[in-house]
Design brief:
- The chain is mostly helical.
- The protein has 7 helices and no strands.
- It has helices at residues 2-10, 15-21, 26-44, 48-61, 77-86, 97-107, 112-147.
- Helix 1 packs across helix 3 (26-44) and helix 3 packs across helix 7.
- The longest helix has 36 residues, at 112-147.
């Protein structure tokens, strides 16, 4: 309930309109906005801090986030931000130096306009990473074709790509 009260208090009514005007990816925006409103509600009502910790620990124990048998450090950037902000730093989620800078910006958002600006930066970074991954994939396929190999990337024939890009962002998203 604290989370939803945070949205009611701090997410502006015209927030969705602003997001659409700015052609925002709603998944990215939601992760950044959740981080902001949860910080703000815990600051306004300090007694909620322990409730948030207990709730997210309970959700984590019930594998609500679907990470029980996964290496969280291999998850896409957006999911790692979300887990870090919700479940906490004790998970020891790894971030590159540049990702740490972006994470710091997420954790320092104060206004909804900040959320939009930081979300734009995340989307640009995620797009760049997706493009790099696609170029590497094309280069691998090109090299395999030159070498006369079968075109299979992994030992099981899979290329282990996330279906929606390395950061949870489709090339066609916002």
């Amino acid at each position: 309930t604290g989370h939803e009260v945070g949205h009611a208090l701090y997410t502006p009514m015209d927030g969705m309109l602003k997001a659409k005007e700015n052609k925002m990816n709603m998944d990215v925006l939601n992760v950044v906005e959740d981080s902001r409103i949860e910080r703000k509600i815990k600051y306004k009502y300090p007694g909620l801090k322990s409730s948030f910790v207990k709730a997210y620990n309970d959700l984590s124990e019930r594998d609500f986030f679907g990470i029980k048998d996964k290496n969280v450090n291999k998850m896409n950037f957006l999911d790692r931000i979300n887990l870090h902000c919700k479940v906490g730093a004790h998970m020891r989620i790894e971030f590159s130096d540049f990702e740490k800078e972006l994470l710091k910006e997420v954790e320092n958002t104060e206004t909804y306009d900040d959320v939009i600006e930081v979300s734009k930066k995340l989307m640009a970074f995620m797009r760049e990473e997706l493009e790099k991954q696609e170029q590497e994939k094309r280069a691998r396929k090109s090299n395999e074709g030159e070498d006369g190999e079968s075109g299979q990337s992994g030992s099981d024939g899979s290329d282990n790509d996330n279906s929606d890009g390395p950061m949870g962002l489709n090339p066609d998203d916002g």
